[in-house]
């Protein structure tokens, strides 16, 4: 079993030697256990803060431990009545080719195939998709005619936020890095506009794209984008704080001006709060089915970037934190 472990805590950007690919035999299954072979591994921004030695909303990864992550796997051996050989599941396996779970483990879901490509259950029909959907609907609470802005617009979270807000009749403005991503967001995903924050004219471009101000800002990146948005928020605006990826590689987190600093000092204060997708875990099946159905019918568009094999996972992950990915970043491990 090949796996990627944390050898040393990264200081800032991940360097050679921080993460290592190691090999160990797969042990014998005990009673009640299930052996799962990883087919697709999901790379997600949250994995970077978990490599730090600070307790956030989840415990840090220990030195020598496998890097956390969700994957799609196939059951290849089962000592549990709950799983049969051949079952396809989403499971928090970590970055490894095989994992063993107790047959009653939480957060493992059998995939009910309904025509969406398998790997989308890690992207727009998976955890990031549910994050976008729930954060928008339950924290952002958009109404038809309002202006909704979402950053990291071409990624799986932003893709679902924007297309869901369009379905509700909102004016939807994305923020993304570079002309290719911005063109895609408007021409393929159907947003009304997309601002390239790397073009050097962020504040003016955003103001021009939001002539009626901003009613909902779905926060994925923080930093300069958040500051530009803050100047345009309408009274009564809502800011679901989903993440702030621009700061994830900063070595001294105490120096980061977070979205809570930026939005908390405004007058009037927007309704803003951090949320975790697990707040709506009881709706996992229902929202997964809704999003997978939209993928299958072609209504929900998306893109993905695929790295081949565990050997390329670290480089792909480093690239994603700098925006080298175009859509959901995946690692294909096996068929
Ligand atoms: P993406 O696939 O969108 O990847 C991250 C993107 O962030 C990059 O592609 C890049 O896009 C953008 N980015 C990177 N650096 C910067 C920067 N300095 N300034 C602005 N943008 C930057 O990721 P996801 O869709 O998976 O996740 C989006 C957000 O959602 C993250 O903040 C993540 O942590 C959060 N999240 C939160 C969850 C929760 O429960 N609260 C659950 C899942 C995700 P570009 O090239 O356009 O800049």
UniProtKB/TrEMBL annotation:
Keywords: Oxidoreductase. Signal peptide: none annotated. GO terms for molecular function: oxidoreductase activity, acting on the CH-CH group of donors, NAD or NADP as acceptor. It holds the Pfam family ADH_N_2. The keyword Oxidoreductase applies. SUPFAM superfamilies: GroES-like (SSF50129), NAD(P)-binding Rossmann-fold domains (SSF51735). This is NADP-dependent oxidoreductase. It comes from Halopseudomonas phragmitis.
């Amino acid at each position: 079993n090949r796996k990627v472990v944390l050898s040393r805590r990264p200081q800032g950007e991940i360097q050679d030697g921080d993460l290592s690919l190691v090999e160990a035999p797969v042990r014998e299954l005990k009673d009640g256990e299930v052996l799962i072979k990883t087919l697709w591994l999901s790379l997600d921004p949250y994995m970077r803060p978990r490599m730090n030695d600070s307790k956030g909303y989840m415990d840090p990864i220990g030195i020598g431990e496998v890097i956390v992550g969700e994957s799609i796997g196939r059951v290849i051996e089962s000592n549990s009545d709950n799983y049969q050989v051949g079952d396809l599941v989403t499971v928090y396996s970590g970055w490894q080719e095989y994992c063993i779970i107790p047959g009653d483990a939480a957060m493992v879901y059998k995939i009910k195939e309904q025509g969406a490509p398998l790997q989308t259950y890690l992207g727009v029909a998976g955890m990031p998709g549910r994050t976008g959907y729930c954060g928008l609907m339950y924290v952002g609470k958009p109404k038809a005619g309002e202006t909704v802005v979402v950053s990291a617009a071409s990624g799986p979270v932003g893709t679902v936020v924007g297309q869901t807000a369009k379905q509700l009749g909102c004016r939807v403005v994305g923020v993304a890095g570079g002309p290719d991503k911005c063109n895609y967001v408007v021409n393929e995903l159907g947003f009304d506009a997309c601002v390239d924050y790397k073009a050097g004219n962020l504040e003016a471009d955003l103001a021009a794209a939001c002539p009626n101000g901003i009613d909902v800002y779905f926060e994925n990146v923080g930093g300069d984008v958040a500051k530009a948005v803050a100047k345009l928020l309408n009274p009564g605006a809502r800011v679901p704080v989903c993440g702030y990826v621009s700061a994830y590689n900063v070595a001294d987190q105490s120096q980061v001006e977070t979205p809570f600093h930026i939005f908390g000092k405004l007058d009037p204060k927007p309704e803003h709060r951090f949320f975790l997708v697990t707040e709506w875990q009881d709706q996992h099946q229902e929202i997964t089915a809704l999003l997978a159905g939209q993928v299958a019918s072609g209504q929900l568009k998306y893109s993905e970037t695929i790295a081949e094999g565990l050997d390329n996972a670290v480089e792909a992950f480093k690239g994603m934190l700098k925006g080298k990915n175009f859509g959901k970043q995946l690692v294909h491990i096996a068929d």
